[in-house]
Write a structure and sequence with these properties.
By secondary structure, the chain is α/β, with parallel strands linked by helices. The chain has 12 helices and 22 strands.
Length: 466
């Protein structure tokens, strides 16, 4: 295993402050950094010795022997379940990284409905309200090609349900809805069996389009409410929790286990094949390169390595460390060469940032001459990440395509959701614009259909009948 690098910021909020010194011997579960504000405790994920502390990470030389035992979280005997989750350092492990102890610190039984924006909810009556508090479990496995959440449902169903019940108890939620794509037949069957005697927990089947796992999309699909870009799920009397996060909650409470590992999918142009290689409980801080080697190593030549999903991930290097929010490592085929042709980039809240889109254009040897934003991409404040007004439900993109044509673009690179990509294709090719999606090199690698014309209905029957 060698060197393990544990970043001091792997959650929403400020970086943590180290509470160990260079030379300290650590075990799995040794507390090594604590929050300085909004954040979550960070623990050693391996047995070893601290060899270096920098501004942004703690470096541990892992011991040759790595026992399974871990140091339990240090909480009083009468600690509440919420206190255990906070102490364990659990964060949103679907990628957002918001501290779970903060998210669950709400009484949904007493939380009033937020104001419903009639402009984005024209079908709802003015006095619409949600009947009780809900835990919404994001089991969408939203990014294409990933399988670790689905596998956890199939193999650790009991732990998933325990975690859900703890989240309900902590937040005083009366009901839970598990949002899962209808295509995950095996996982749905496992949940059906587990929920036979669980009247307060139900499933909602999602269509296989991106981004059904976006937090506000989950609220809309399950509860019928479009939240505006500034509202949290609590405005719909709900808390959204990722599948793996729910399991880490169960571990913190049942085992007093600190959050020291991550489930992930490694996939792509690998000697081990391009199918999904799922790894459970990977120690936080191991390198991207080590995980790629576990999956068979890179099949040369290749395009780039992505940490995270095809839509929201970022390019990375072999020595980069795994964090609490790393869901995937993707090795892609080579990029096509546009030979310096004029390119327009369409930036969407559901995909890569402008910086990421420009990086992809550069790797394709394209000359960016125009940049537009999806008409639904909202910037709540200057410099903040873009938010989509209606994630996964997009109006037309004719205006942007006209701008690209005016700016003499030959190609456009888009980073849009399934529906948004569909609206681009309705007019772009007719104007002579050649379309690439930012995920094309990943989709080609894993054998997934390219994001172009939407072929899946946005509506899906709720009946489970296989």
């Amino acid at each position: 295993m060698g060197k393990v690098q544990i970043l001091l910021r792997q959650h929403v909020g400020a970086p943590c402050a180290p509470c160990v010194e260079v030379g300290a011997d650590v075990k799995k579960g040794t507390l090594i950094a604590t929050p300085t504000g909004l954040g979550a405790n960070i623990y050693a994920s391996v047995y070893g010795k601290v060899t270096e502390i920098t501004d942004d990470r703690i470096i541990i030389e892992a011991a040759d022997e790595q026992p399974d035992e871990f140091v339990p979280i240090d909480v009083p005997e009468d600690a509440s379940k919420l206190d255990m989750v906070k102490a364990a350092g659990v964060v949103g492990m679907g990628g957002a990284g918001f501290p779970t102890g903060v998210k669950l610190n709400i009484n949904l039984a007493e939380t009033p409905m937020g104001e419903i924006n009639p402009e984005i909810n024209p079908e709802l009556p003015k006095d619409f309200s949600i009947d009780c508090g809900y835990i919404l479990i994001n089991a969408a496995e939203c990014e294409p090609g990933l399988e670790h959440n689905t596998q956890q449902i199939e193999t650790q169903t009991d732990k998933v349900i325990r975690g859900i019940k703890y989240c309900m108890e902590i937040t005083h939620a009366e009901k839970t809805i598990i949002a899962i794509k209808k295509k995950h037949h095996k996982a749905i069957k496992a949940l059906q069996k587990a929920l036979e005697k669980e009247s307060a927990i139900t499933m909602h089947l999602l269509p296989d389009i991106y981004p059904m796992g976006e937090e506000r999309a989950v609220v809309r699909e399950c509860l019928g409410v479009n939240l505006d870009t500034t509202q949290l799920p609590s405005a719909a009397r709900a808390v959204v929790v990722n599948v793996e996060t729910a399991c880490r909650v169960a571990e913190a409470i049942d085992e007093k286990r600190p959050c020291i590992s991550k489930n992930m999918t490694v996939r792509g142009k690998l000697n081990g094949g391009n199918e999904a290689h799922v790894f459970m409980d990977v120690p936080i801080g191991v390198s991207v390169g080590e995980m790629i080697e576990k999956a068979g190593g890179i099949e040369e030549p290749y395009g780039e390595i992505i940490m995270g999903g095809a839509f929201t991930g970022k390019s990375t290097e072999l020595d980069a460390p795994i964090t609490k929010t790393t869901g995937a490592i993707l090795v892609t085929v080579e990029f096509p060469d546009l030979h310096g042709a004029n390119v327009g980039i369409l930036v969407c809240a559901c995909g890569g940032s402008e910086e990421r889109m420009r990086e992809i254009a550069k790797k394709m040897n394209g000359n960016v001459v125009s940049m537009c934003r999806c008409k639904q991409a909202i910037e709540n404040k200057p410099g903040a990440p873009l938010k989509c007004l209606r994630p996964g439900n997009c109006p037309g993109q004719v205006k942007n395509n006209l701008q690209f044509k005016k700016d003499k673009c030959e190609y456009i690179i888009i980073g849009n959701c399934s529906d948004c990509s569909n609206t681009v294709m309705a007019s772009g090719p007719k104007m002579g614009l050649k379309v690439f999606h930012q995920t094309d090199h990943v989709m080609r690698t894993v054998g997934h259909p390219l994001y172009r014309t939407l072929r899946v209905s946005k509506q899906v029957s709720q009946d489970i009948d296989f």
